[in-house]
Design goal:
single chain; about 325 residues; alpha/beta; about 15% strand; 6-stranded mixed beta sheet; binds (S)-Methylmalonyl-Coenzyme A; 2-enoyl-CoA Hydratase, Chain A, domain 1; 3-stranded mixed beta sheet
């Protein structure tokens, strides 16, 4: 997507609004930034406003992170309050019908594909610190990171093919299937995507989706000190093994060498076929979004979740 179209889309998504925020702390630890998703009432679902914010953060890192003098070498992506992310903020679909329409689906899949493709190619080592749920788009987000640290209570679910009954709901919209194949393999990705199975930390350690597991889960919010937030602490330990030559004496590896390796390795994924693949994925997503099957599944989900109470999404 060219820069003008991207800026227009970011502006539009800010106007679409919604709750929550994506917060960027470049001074989280020496050389390590923290990006946190904050929309606690909806398990850190991404509202359009949050998608625009994430896109802007990634955009600015894309412009700066490759510079050898830029002080950051790594980044932790996490969710606030004991959960990672529950994908698109479904409350938007009950506030305005346009969010059930194909035009919005098309915009969202373009914006999120662009954001997460750039994110995965940043000249920074990235790790997702995952406590609680990473579901739907939230599961897709974790595939954009180089590594994943899960708490023992983490649950990963590519919910896309399953909405309680047999009807199709939607397909992957944030570029997650291609990245899942790159992390695992075609056979494993197919099983995970079609079954929509909830993966535990143990499942993910076995299949390779998790790189490290924290035996404890987070106790509180990100305002807690790192020492009492075990998933972030474990992610930091994992990163520090890469970044430091000598941790005890705080001697870091050369940041230009880290950046250069990241650049070489992320350019190995053949860019053109991947872009073509993204195109196929986006078309499939838009063709299913807003169709009867999806709308029925959404209704069903709301009914099941509400059990006769007020609408949840
Ligand atoms: C774009 C597309 C894509 O993947 O490409 C998508 O992402 S589509 C979105 C795909 N995501 C989903 O289908 C996830 C839907 N959510 C769930 O299945 C569940 O909420 C779990 C995430 C498994 C958590 O279950 P648990 O029983 O622990 O909590 P809960 O269901 O009471 O959820 C706590 C509160 O968060 C809200 N909540 C949860 N997920 C939400 C979402 N995606 N959008 C808006 N609100 C959401 C619930 O309605 C509830 O609100 P109240 O406290 O007011 O009752």
């Amino acid at each position: 997507m060219n820069q003008n179209n991207l800026k227009l889309l970011q502006k539009k998504f800010k106007l679409y609004g919604g709750l929550g925020s994506v917060d960027f702390n470049p001074n989280f630890q020496k050389s390590i930034a923290l990006v946190s998703l904050n929309n606690v009432e909806s398990k850190n679902a991404l509202s359009p406003k949050m998608m625009a914010e994430l896109s802007e953060i990634v955009d600015s890192l894309e412009n700066t992170s490759h510079d050898k003098n830029y002080p950051l070498t790594a980044l932790i992506l996490t969710g606030n309050k004991k959960t990672f992310c529950s994908g698109f903020d479904l409350r938007m679909t009950s506030s305005d019908n346009k969010f059930k329409g194909k035009e919005f689906a098309n915009e969202m899949t373009h914006l999120m594909n662009d954001t997460l493709r750039k994110f995965s190619k940043l000249s920074l080592i990235s790790i997702a610190a995952i406590d609680g749920w990473a579901i739907g788009g939230g599961a897709e987000l974790i595939t954009a990171c180089d590594f994943r640290c899960l708490s023992k209570n983490a649950k990963i679910k590519f919910v896309h093919s399953e909405m309680g009954v047999t009807t199709d709901y939607l397909t992957i919209g944030w570029g997650g299937s291609g990245r899942l194949i790159s992390i695992l393999n075609q056979k494993e990705a197919l099983k995970i995507l079609v079954s929509g199975k909830t993966l535990t930390a143990n499942d993910c350690l076995q299949n390779g989706l998790a790189d490290v597991v924290s035996e404890e889960s987070s106790y509180g919010s990100l305002t807690d000190t790192v020492s009492i937030n075990p998933v972030i602490k474990k992610s930091l330990d994992f990163l520090n093994d890469f970044i430091f030559v000598d941790k005890e004496n705080s001697i870091m590896r050369s940041s230009s060498s880290i950046k250069s390796f990241k650049k070489i390795i992320s350019s190995f994924s053949e860019e053109k076929p991947f872009i073509k693949f993204n195109e196929i994925e986006r078309d499939a997503f838009v063709s299913l979004w807003g169709e009867n099957d999806q709308l029925m599944a959404l209704e069903r989900k709301i009914k099941i979740k509400n059990a006769g109470e007020n609408k949840k999404y």
